[in-house]
């Protein structure tokens, strides 16, 4: 069933209280929600920053933009929603004349609505076209990748982004079976290539994760975007990032570590030549995870990790 504007959004924001308490929104602060989804975190930020706090919400997915716009309409001009990538946040903020902001949220990954919408092709549990694009209006679909990549390239994607131990076996089976048009066809090919396994999760999970990451170029976008986002924070303002698998979390952890250090020269180098200056302070030395109740109530929360950093004063 498709979620439409006016339906109750099925997506439950993960680590909601924790995120709000770390961001500590105030009035008249300006906030950026990079991944609006169904607008759950966004409406929390607007409520907490009443009466004058403002928020720019971005999402690549036009359906998420419609849902969030409908949900945030109650906040009037305090909420602005745009369809676009958080990689270009600076340009969207400039258009609004906002300059730097008092808090940024990045809640990565796929939303429950996107998984539920069979025609988006994100889920192996529902039959739909092999698409997987966050923005269905642009870029390469999963069908393009599985039907046109060389077997070796496909195996690399499954290995790198899905951590699939049997990536070559799966890639070979896909190449033999193509052309593949639907999620059910792809899931069937992966399951028969891997045979019966003892693992609790569906054997197609890793292949679907890998293809989604490749289709949306997710890891490269996160790597490039986070330092740019840090540059958009006011002194002492915070950035909160929620990730859902180790590949994402590693990028955030390494980026925060690098940006919180004054020197990033190799350790064996006796004298600093990099001239790098710390721009943030890490607020969560260990990632914050959901409590047992949230994990029980919301399966998406089980793998969620929240990391938070605060901007330092800029040196003159
Ligand atoms: C986990 S959901 C966010 C849920 C949201 N925090 C809420 O409370 O409903 C992640 C969202 O990020 C969006 N997204 C993924 N990559 C993006 C990008 N580069 N720029 C903007 N949005 C993106 C997806 O379309 C999806 O709607």
| Associated small molecules | S-adenosylmethionine
Largest pleated sheet: 7 strands, mixed
Q: What is the C-alpha radius of gyration, as a whole number of Å?
A: 20 Å
* Name of the CATH architecture of the largest domain: 3-Layer(aba) Sandwich
Secondary structure category? alpha/beta
Q: Can you count the beta strands?
A: 7
Helix content: 40-55%
Distance between the ends: 55 Å
Task: Give the neighbour order of strands across the main sheet.
Answer: 3-2-1-4-5-7-6
Which blocks of ≥5 consecutive residues have pLDDT under 50?
Answer: 1-6
Describe the model.
The structure is a single chain. This protein folds into two domains: 16-113 and 218-311, Rossmann fold, CATH 3.40.50; 138-215, DNA polymerase, domain 1, CATH 1.10.150. It has a seven-stranded mixed β-sheet with strand order 3-2-1-4-5-7-6, sandwiched between helices. The chain has 13 helices and seven strands. By secondary structure, it is of the alpha/beta class. Helix 3 (62-72) links the parallel strand 2 and strand 3 (79-83). Helix 7 (151-162) crosses helix 8 (167-177) and helix 8 packs across helix 9. The chain binds S-adenosylmethionine. S-adenosylmethionine (SAM) is lined by residues 11, 13, 34-35, 37-41, 58-61, 64, 85-87, 107, 109, 111, 134, 221. S-adenosylmethionine binds at residues 11, 13, 34-35, 37-41, 58-61, 64, 85-87, 107, 109, 111, 134, 221.
């Amino acid at each position: 069933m498709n979620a439409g504007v006016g339906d109750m959004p099925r997506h439950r924001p993960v680590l909601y209280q924790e995120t709000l308490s770390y961001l500590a929104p105030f009035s008249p602060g300006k906030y950026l929600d990079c991944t609006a989804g169904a607008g759950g975190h966004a409406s929390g930020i607007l409520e907490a920053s009443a009466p004058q706090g403002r928020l720019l919400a971005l999402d690549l997915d036009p359906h998420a933009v419609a849902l969030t716009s409908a949900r945030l309409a109650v906040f009037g001009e305090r909420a602005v929603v745009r369809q676009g990538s958080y990689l270009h946040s600076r340009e969207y903020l400039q258009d609004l004349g906002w300059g730097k902001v008092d808090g940024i949220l990045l809640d990565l990954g796929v939303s429950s609505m996107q998984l539920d919408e069979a025609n988006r092709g994100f889920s192996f549990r529902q039959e739909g076209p092999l698409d997987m694009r966050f923005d269905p209006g642009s870029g390469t679909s999963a069908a393009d990748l599985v039907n046109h990549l060389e077997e070796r390239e496909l195996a690399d994607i499954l290995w790198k982004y899905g951590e699939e131990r049997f990536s070559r076996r799966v890639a070979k089976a896909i190449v033999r079976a193509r052309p593949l048009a639907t999620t059910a066809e792809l899931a069937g090919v992966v399951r028969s290539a891997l045979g019966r396994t003892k693992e609790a999760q569906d054997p197609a999970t890793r292949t679907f994760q890998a293809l989604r990451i490749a289709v949306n170029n997710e890891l490269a976008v996160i790597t490039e975007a986070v330092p740019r986002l840090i540059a958009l924070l006011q002194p002492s303002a915070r950035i909160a990032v929620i990730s859902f698998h180790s590949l994402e979390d590693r990028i955030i952890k390494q980026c925060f570590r690098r940006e919180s250090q004054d020197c990033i020269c190799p350790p064996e180098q006796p004298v600093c030549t990099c001239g790098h200056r710390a721009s943030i302070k890490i607020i969560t030395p260990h990632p914050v995870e959901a409590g047992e109740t949230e994990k029980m109530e919301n399966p998406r929360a089980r793998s969620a990790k929240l990391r938070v950093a605060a901007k330092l004063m800029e040196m003159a």
